[in-house]
Each structure stands twice: as C-alpha cells, then as structure tokens.
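Good morning C.,

I know you're traveling, so I'll keep this short. The sequence:
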Amino acid sequence: MPDACAFRVWTRQDNTLRWERRLTYIGTTETPTSRLFSLESTYGSEMLFSIAPLPDLSTESAKRSRERSEIRYDLLGAHYLTTGHPPTDQF
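The tokens, ready to paste straight into the viewer:
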C-alpha cells in the first residue's frame, strides 16, 4: 500500500440493492491502512473504497500537507461539478 494516497469511500444507499452506493467521503492520508480501519469503524464493513497513490509529493512537511489538501479539494470540486452536491459526509 502506498505511503501517501487519495481515497474515496462509498456506502450503501438506504432502500436500494447492495451494489448501489453513494460517494460518502473523499480524503488524503499519509497512513492509508490506519485511516481506512478508522473509516470502517465509522461506516461499517460494507463500505467500499478506492485508493490512488500520490508518489510525487514534496518531501518538505508543510509543502507536502498543502499538496495533499490541494489534491483533496480538486477531487471534491470535480465531484461537485459533476453531480451538483458534495459527498454526503464531507462537511
């Protein structure tokens, strides 16, 4: 698993079939395994997630944090422009 990554979490929609999911959360992290375990405790074992490694981030701590935030906001903006609403638990 990558060190730094961006991720998305989907949860089951109420009153729908199991495979019908809604985007619940978009984030970035330096510790994907730990973060996904904590999200599982929040959303349950039926959550789905996708991960994209972020291999080209800066090695300088403050700059790296800013770069991760920019990536998260870009993903949120793209989702909002496509669907007209943010992920359900984002804000």
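Safe travels,
E.
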